[in-house]
Amino acid sequence: MATAILQARMSSSRLPGKVMKTLVGKPMIERQIERLRRGATLTRLIVATSEDASDDALAAFLGEIGLATFRGPLADVLGRYVGAIETLGVTGTVVRLTADCPLADPSVIDDCVRLHAESGAEYASNSLRRTYPRGLDVEVFGADQLLTAGREAVDPYDREHVTPFLYRNPDRFSCVQLVQARDESGLRWTVDTPEDFAFVERVYAALYPTKPDFTSEDVRALPFSHVEA
User: Fold this and answer.
1) What contacts 112, CB < 8 A, 6 or more positions away?
2) Is the dihedral of CA 157, 130, 39, 21 positive or negative?
3) Residue 229 has pLDDT above 60, yes or no
């Protein structure tokens, strides 16, 4: 079982405010949270946003819907995760997720959490050796390992992207990768641009009204879902 920490901010350069853009009547981040709550292995969900004024409205909304929230540095996202872990008493297994993935697949998250547990590895993901679409990314590690990274990582890249200190030091942290038979690494199911959001809107419009718990297989069955970036 694991604690998911979902990082979110409003100051995206390519699509500002994307996490609060409306997706079938609710903010995009709320739609993603709906999907995450269907996971069998996630016992706790925390949103880590920034203390920058640009995220005040986001933090207020998260409070309104009852989400545990931690606010930390805008640029030092690793520091934000460390603050969330220490302040909110997170122990054991942690799942890192990003709030620009409203097609997140709870079954893939569960598979990655189980791989982490069964392998005994200290870091597991499905994004270093990518076979899943962008937007289904999952990273799993121990809270203690991330606290070590927080103490020792000095490279700005490590601080911004949270986990590179772990997977770039395989002599210290054992790593495993979750892969699938089909290669969908060229597909974009994430939201970084207006075009990405338009795609996600089409998916939700096609599936959500009749099947709000739609699966990745449902997305794959849509005739427009296989256009590569």
Assistant:
1) 95, 124, 125, 126, 138, 139, 140, 178
2) positive
3) no
Annotate 80-95 with DSSP letters as a single string.
HHHHHHHHTT--SEEE
The DSSP output letter for 140 is E
Radius of gyration over alpha carbons of the chain, in Å?
A: 17
Q: Provide the terminal-to-terminal Cα distance of the chain, rounded to the nearest Å.
A: 34
CB burial readout 119-157, b (16+ within 10 A) else e:
eebbbbbbbbebbbbbbbbbbbbbbebbebbbeebeeee
| Sign of the four-CA dihedral 26, 27, 28, 33 | negative
- Residue-wise pLDDT for 21-74, tens only, equals 999 999 999 999 999 999 999 999 999 999 999 999 999 999 999 999 999 999
Tokens 């996202």 belong to 77
Q: How much is the pLDDT for 226?
A: 72
